[in-house]
Write a structure and sequence with these properties.
The chain is α+β, with helices and mostly antiparallel strands. The chain has 1 helix and 3 strands, in the order E-H-E-E.
Length: 70
């Protein structure tokens, strides 16, 4: 039932995002640019995980994995 050659496979990417309130300015522009760049590469933000031990959140992205050549 699961698996097989036709099942969509994913690759994942994580980045850290500072736990700061975004206000209009350079940091907001940088974050927007980074997210747009990742979107252009096919990455989709699927979850933000708050971390307790650091001053950042973990952003989790996924995109379809390219088929492997046989």
């Amino acid at each position: 039932i699961y698996g097989g050659d036709n099942m969509q496979q994913w690759e994942y990417k994580t980045i850290r995002s500072p736990k700061v309130a975004f206000t209009a300015g350079e940091r907001e522009y940088e974050m927007t640019k980074e997210l747009n760049d990742l979107g252009q590469q096919g990455w989709e933000l699927v979850q933000e995980v708050a971390t307790v031990s650091s001053n950042s959140n973990c952003l989790i992205f996924k995109r379809p994995k390219a088929p492997t050549q046989t």
